[in-house]
Amino acid sequence: MQRIASQTTLLFLSLIPIIALAENSAPEDYLANQQLVLEVRYCECLATKTDGAPSDLLPSFLRESSLLKVSVSSKDDGFASSSELAIGYKLKPVAGSPDQFQFNYAGNHSTSNGNSAANGELLLVQGQWVNLFGSQNETQTGSHHSNVAVRLVKPGGP
Q: Which stretch is the leader sequence (predicted)?
């Protein structure tokens, strides 16, 4: 009986560091200092004014859109998805420009009004949003939009 009690005490004491670590960690604790975060926003809504630049996102898009964050290094390729969005990407730094990256992508956004998909290559400037792709459908109930935008930030950045 005493042996069982001491084994139980030993087991309990061995779990204390695990419990303490679980209570004090946050998802962001697993980001390395040199890594970046690729933020992907997507929504069944309008992202930019019809006459605006692809980087001039509407405040309503930023409020209403869903956000997917992916930890990336400055030279990386990968894939991220949610129930509505799938995106593959390749990131490569631009020589001599530490805040600029060549961004290749292929994405698919599923909405209640269908799918929109695109692929391409563009220049990402760290911290700046870029509207990647979207769609506009005219129906009897009005105009329906969907859009996907990305930006690259430092962990804890803007």
A: 1-22
Q: How distant is the alpha carbon of residue 6 from its chain centre?
A: 48
Cα gap 110→108, rounded to integer Å:
7
User: For residue 99, what are the CA distances in angstroms to 36, 79, 102, 121, 145?
Assistant: 11, 22, 11, 17, 31
Full-model pTM? 0.75
pLDDT digits (tens, 9 = 90+) for 108-131: 999 887 888 999 999 999 999 999
User: Residue 112 and residue 139: Cα distance in Å, rounded?
Assistant: 13
> To which residue do tokens 């509207």 refer?
131
Q: 78 lies in a domain?
A: yes
Residue ranges making up the domain that contains 101: 31-153
Rg (the chain; Cα; Å): 22
What residues contact residue 31 under an 8 Å CB cut-off, 6+ apart?
A: 37, 71, 155
Residue 25 belongs to a domain = no
